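Before a colleague's protein record goes any further, I have to sign it off. I want your independent view on whether this chain really folds as the tokens say. The record follows directly below this note.
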Amino acid sequence: MPVAEVDTFAGIDVSAHELSVALRRGQGHDKPAMAKFPNHPSGHKALVAYLLRGGGRVRVCLEASGNYSLDLALTLQAHRQVEISVINPRRARRFAESLGERSKTDPVDARVLCEYAARMPWVRWQPPSPVALHLRALTRAIADLGVIHTQQNNRAYAAAASQALPVLVVKEMQRHKKYLEQRMTRLRREAVRLIACDPELDRRFRLMLTTIGIAETSALQILGELAVLPDMLDARQWVAFSHCVVIPISVSSIKTYSLAAKLGCKRWWQSCGNCCMLCLPCSAAINRTMAPSCARWTWPSMPLPLALELPEKERGFSAPLLERKNLTLRENL
């Protein structure tokens, strides 16, 4: 939609309990009006009424803030007069620096987001499906319980190593560990049932299981993180999501090596780190060694570069994550 058809721009800074809103009507450069609303359903309803007071279309920009911004984004997306864009907080910070804005408060962030909505190319947010949101919530709960289970297992092992400690303590730790295992099993069954009800997710899940090195646990975690993303992302955008950056490090004027830095989605790295699915660009040259030819994975337009198979001496750099497992695909899309 041309910018001329939208004359109202808003930026919303989201916190756990409050929404800071900067609203500018018209194409002028007047200072935007500021308002605050509580971050709960009644506050969202009042915010929508405030934005649509002028009767025209409204373009709203906000940062991705996890669960704190999800309900707000879905509420705004449901209105035809509201266009919403959910941007990466790092992009918003870089835009603020380009404006010469060094302070970072809720009103300042809201004004910066309002300027972003008025000036920058518009990319409309596409809400994920309810099934994808439910699947991600289940897989993240499983991952969190897995961390607690590992901690409890370590405590139980340490407690059992000493005969001076009461037996009751050791038994209670073991009971708690079994309780966590039962909860993870219940959530895992629910996630598998949810996937089976969606033909496309079920197809991707089964195809993922054909990959050597990926079993049900890893497949659920990876699918849960990728299911909420749009299908039309290209390879560069997938890499930007995982944010795998190859950092060249100079040892001397004639010798350099490269390391893969993990700067992106933490959940993504936790889910795919064990099976070594590193989203490196296929065309990226690492110390004059091209990444191997990629194969089509379970998502459209997503090339999956396979793990580098060359020995470390021939490869010229050290990347332990790339050496854990060699992945092969039994089926290419």
Residues 130-160 form the longest helix (31 residues). Residues 130-226 form one domain. The chain has a mean pLDDT of 76. The CA atoms of residues 192 and 280 lie 29 Å apart.
